[in-house]
Give the backbone structure.
Amino acid sequence: MEELNVQASSHAYSILIGEGIRNQITDYFTNSYSSIWIITDENVAKLYLGDVLETLSDFHVHHTILPAGEQTKSIDYYNQLMTEAIAYGLDRYSLLIALGGGVIGDLAGFVAATYMRGIDYIQMPTTILAHDSSVGGKVAINHPLGKNLIGSFYAPQGVFYDMETLITLNDREIRSGYAELVKEALISDEAIFRSILTTKLQNLSTSIMQEHIRSGIQIKAQVVEQDEKENAMRKYLNLGHTLGHALEAHLGYGSITHGEAVAIGLLFALHVSESVFDTTLPFLQLKQWLETNHYPLHFLTGDQQTILAKMKNDKKNKQHHIQMVLLEQVGKPFIKQMTDEDMLSYLSSFTRKLVNN
């Protein structure tokens, strides 16, 4: 069992990483609760909901099972969950447990942040991707015009990361999660980035995966401690997300996984960075690694004006200008305001580069 600590503005909380944590979560509760509500999805429920319910057998417990997929992170399901919370009679001394991947964590966290102006919640991530979203207290739902546009900053009471839940992930979920690990390495540590580039995801060992996840969580935790509300350096964690989020919205949530979209966005960020800073970055090495590990890189199609419009809906933008995270070099991120003309030019040249290299 490993324990990392994060100091949020409201309170400190622990991130526990180990095996079998789902079977002993009550040992790590920091408060007493009148009732507990588990929110999960249909895929995770089949695998792990029973274990968690058994662990909580001495508590008054409710649970809700939602459809799996990015489409669930919507105002409609948020409203459904609020109605259920009221019907269950949850009060301010209730605990919400988000059991699942990033979609469940974001949606359930936003419910916790807004129900009765805020109740305690715990993140129990079950995907690699959720190592990123479960830490730092950013909770949100999507709008058809943009991803995560409706949300809040609301820190959990804890993050319980049971590594055993990752053994059931399919190849697409592993790819999706590793894109965020690549992002964290690119903004902070070239050695970790090079280590990931030597990893074949089809032959991924549990020990290597845990090492990469631990590094990713440490990077994320260090950043959010210094800039919880995304006023400065936390924006660096959005490397690859300007185009990534736009692609998700453009193609329809669920058509492409978050990590697949971010992977394309990371390549785009490296492409733009090479031009802006007149330097050579590991664009080709990353592209080769993504192709070797079967990331789909063909999604950048369609009207580039439409994609640009989606990029301009990003919540990080300022006065309708795109604020893009670039790299002067690996481990040295930089935020640059981009013009529409430049972005259209870069989108065109990037599309050609994907085809020709």
